[in-house]
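Comment on this:
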Amino acid sequence: MTTWYEDAFRPGSEIQGKWNGRVYVVERLLGAGSNGVVALVRRGTVRFALKAGRETVDHQFEINSLHALSLTSTSFKGFLIDVDDMIVQGKEVPFFVMRYIEGMNISDFLHKWGKEWIYVIGSNLLKKLTELHKSGYVFGDLKIENMIVSNYGDVDLIDFGGVTPKGRAIKQLTEVYDRGFWKAGERVADESYDLFSFAILLIKALDQKNRLAALSKSLPQNREIEQLYAIIKENPVAVRIAPFLHQALNGQLKTSREAYQYWRSLVAGKKLAPSPLKLPWLKICFAASLFIFGATVYIYW
């Protein structure tokens, strides 16, 4: 059975906005889920990510959140490029266009370049969350699939369908990353909710035995935070950041700013293991200088 988006998002096909008239050429489908379809498109020589969805209320809420963030003086500035409707099978389907981020997920990055990169990636992700939280929002559905790692551990968030104003009920989540799933707190949009998900994300990325997947299938009455501690103990890199993970899982870190400062102090002086990255010597020296936290990570605040 053909889905509603297959013809519209076939590689080489054109998507034209009904109101703004801009034309985008589809390169390939990036993903399709319950809350929309995302494709890699280009306009001229510039590539973008285009998301279309039929759930109008959720789609509009995501647009509103992105629009607000795009107006801030943060790394999210200008993230939202275009908003319009397209005609699919005779019906109007809303879509929006945002910056396209090239990279890989954190698990693939760590597997390729080494687990010690978790120190840099964690720092960059916390800075990104801090920007989001200062703007009055919680990401909500923070998970491996919703972040991209590139360059020297740079981090970008993608899929803003779960972004929720602070104080409201979390609107979209993935159970294993949800503190309610682990009986560790309410599904309310506060900064500690994202920090709990941040801890789960790191545990999952470092979980070589894939134990978290098995635990997530257990009965609710058998699910305990202590089981997550056991997974942490099994990985040497996770052990080094265990104090942070424990506090995040227990809701002891209330703000992302506090979490970032604690993370920075905890990983200060930890260096990356030798990496097979084939970079010019200037870039190698520059990268190394970034990752010796005690001496060279710049003061964020």
